[in-house]
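Example 3.2
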Amino acid sequence: MNLKDNIDNILNRVEQAAKISGRSIEDITVIAVSKTVDAEKAKQAIEGGLSNLGENKVQEFVNKYEQLSDMNIKWHMIGHLQKNKVKYIIDKAELIHSVENIDLANEINKRAKQNEIVSKVLIELNIGEEDSKFGINAENVYDFIKEVSKYDNIMVMGLMTVAPYAEDPEEVRWVFKKMKDIYNNICKMQLKNTDMKYLSMGMTNDFEIAIEEGSNMVRIGTAIFGSRNY
């Protein structure tokens, strides 16, 4: 498996999908999802032309962050984040993608304040309302984001979702359309401590459809690193 070839292929596909939506590849952030992948392979992804790495588990995040500290990497916490683990990544994460309850937001705000930083976060939605996935329901997001906007040490940078898995990604196009509508509605609200820049949606199986529907941040693991052995 040649990581560089995989990355070039992904970037080519991202570029084509961006064109369909009237944008360019510069408008899309590609995050290499390096969960379960060793630091050396993650390093190869950065050397292959990517600058963003996404991790699902805090311990893995911290281990790789330390091992690759000499590289210019933007680190993303994309997995479910437990309140008691926030302190380990608060000063390391470029963006926390998975804020979906007030207790977690409260802890992030507290830890960010202690570190004298403003933590950038995304609000996670569960559009498909799957029991197996985290995230808040579409109808609750407006009240939730109003609450989070009251925290001065959090900057809400946008929204994130994981679409239900479908063999044919056309089946989940509606999820991405709905996310874009919600994103647009929140932009109009002009809340404080909110700077709606990112719509993080789309993974290996469905990122092209997500980009066509307005995603500007995709999280790609399998198509870069191959299938994982859990």
